[in-house]
């Protein structure tokens, strides 16, 4: 029999009541007496299980319900309906033993104290999580080495680069050695090198400590590098639960060919080689069916004045958009 899930969500649902009120003073007064609300169904009946040691990508467009789901799973908000069990605990009870087993990192939120060195925030966390001094030092050194951050621990946080700051955020969030990591856009806004470093670190952390990771990211490269399995959520509902490969094959059976031409060409000249998604000056972006890729690239190089050609996976946003044009029921959920 399979071991118990590290994260279990059953019919998880969150509805927000949003006040309907105009901007004017009269509207405010009217709202005071006759309150009008609209229900936003942020998350609607989501069920899935993540097993210990898995790294699962959580995908969906803006406003799909990812953050709301993560907030329920970490106990920051109560669900309107449904159950969850994370590391054996009901998250919204916020038991101390639960908080020691999980962490939530949000790429757009910061816990480090701006004017102080990162190591001071680490100390604060060590006190909160009751980590003994010797163990604290050992963990800081180990994590700092994994993150290539050892030199930066004593600099005020405000002097760190964005990438270094994110690394320090991760260190602070992992000091208590949680078993379950909820990472909400951990690479948001980072340059490509920093993105790669964060991604490599998450992979190594998962390997070394067997941690379970649920990760949201808008960067396809993060998901492709880390997650074999993805959950796709749209308008609060789970649309897909399965292998990343399956998702790409099913919804993006094409590759993107980026071209730099020696001279500008009209759209009609490119159309025979693929679906022209962008054409500006000498730069073009074509979509080509996967199974015809080699043949089409050969034809493009033979027949067009090409200075540079690059084959890429289609942007995640585009793949997701296709998922939503042709929704399917969740698999295995
Ligand atoms: N506190 C709140 N009150 C009212 N509505 C909310 C609240 N928090 C989120 N929502 C709404 O719930 C829906 C889901 O939001 P959520 O932040 O979970 O989406 P998301 O998938 O994380 O999106 P993003 O990728 O943009 O962060 C959105 O329509 C959002 O406007």
From TrEMBL:
Q: Which InterPro entries match?
A: AAA+_ATPase, ABC_transporter-like_ATP-bd, ABC_transporter-like_CS, ABC_transporter_ATP-binding, P-loop_NTPase
Example GO molecular function: ATP hydrolysis activity
Q: Name one Pfam family in it.
A: ABC_tran
Q: Where is the signal peptide?
A: none
Sorted keywords for this record are: ATP-binding, Nucleotide-binding, Transport
PROSITE patterns named in the record: ABC_TRANSPORTER_1, ABC_TRANSPORTER_2
The cross-references to SUPFAM superfamilies, in alphabetical order and at most eight, read: P-loop containing nucleoside triphosphate hydrolases
Q: Does the keyword ATP-binding apply?
A: yes
Where does the record place the ABC transporter domain? 20-260
Gene3D superfamilies according to UniProt: P-loop containing nucleotide triphosphate hydrolases
Which protein is depicted?
A: ATP-binding cassette domain-containing protein
């Amino acid at each position: 029999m399979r071991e118990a899930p590290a994260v279990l969500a059953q019919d998880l649902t969150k509805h927000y009541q949003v006040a309907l009120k105009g901007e004017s003073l009269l509207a405010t007064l009217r709202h005071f007496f006759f309150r009008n609300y609209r229900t936003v169904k942020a998350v609607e009946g989501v069920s899935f299980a993540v097993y210990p040691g898995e790294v699962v990508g959580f995908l969906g467009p803006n406003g799909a319900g990812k953050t709301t789901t993560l907030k329920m799973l970490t106990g920051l908000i109560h669900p309107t309906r449904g159950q969850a069990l994370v590391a054996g605990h009901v998250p919204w009870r916020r038991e101390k033993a639960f908080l020691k087993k999980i962490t939530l990192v949000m790429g757009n939120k910061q816990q480090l104290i701006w004017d102080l060195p990162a190591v001071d925030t680490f100390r604060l966390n060590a006190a909160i999580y009751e980590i003994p001094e010797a163990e604290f030092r050992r963990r800081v050194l180990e994590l700092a080495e994994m993150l290539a951050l050892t030199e930066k621990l004593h600099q005020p946080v405000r002097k760190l680069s964005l990438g270094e700051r994110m690394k320090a955020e991760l260190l602070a969030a992992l000091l208590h050695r949680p078993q379950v990591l909820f990472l909400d856009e951990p690479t948001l806004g980072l340059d490509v090198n920093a993105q790669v470093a964060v991604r490599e670190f998450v992979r190594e952390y998962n390997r070394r400590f067997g941690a379970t990771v649920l990760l949201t990211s808008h960067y396809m490269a993060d998901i492709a590098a880390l997650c074999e399995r993805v959950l796709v959520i749209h308008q609060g509902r789970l649309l897909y639960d399965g292998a990343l490969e399956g998702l790409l094959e099913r919804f993006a059976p094409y590759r993107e060919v980026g071209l730099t031409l020696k001279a500008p060409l009209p759209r009609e000249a490119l159309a025979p080689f693929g679906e022209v998604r962008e054409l500006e000056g000498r730069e073009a972006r074509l979509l080509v069916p996967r199974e015809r890729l080699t043949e089409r690239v050969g034809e493009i190089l033979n027949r067009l004045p090409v200075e540079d050609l690059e084959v890429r996976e289609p942007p995640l946003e585009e793949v997701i958009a296709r998922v939503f044009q042709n929704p399917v029921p969740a698999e295995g959920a």
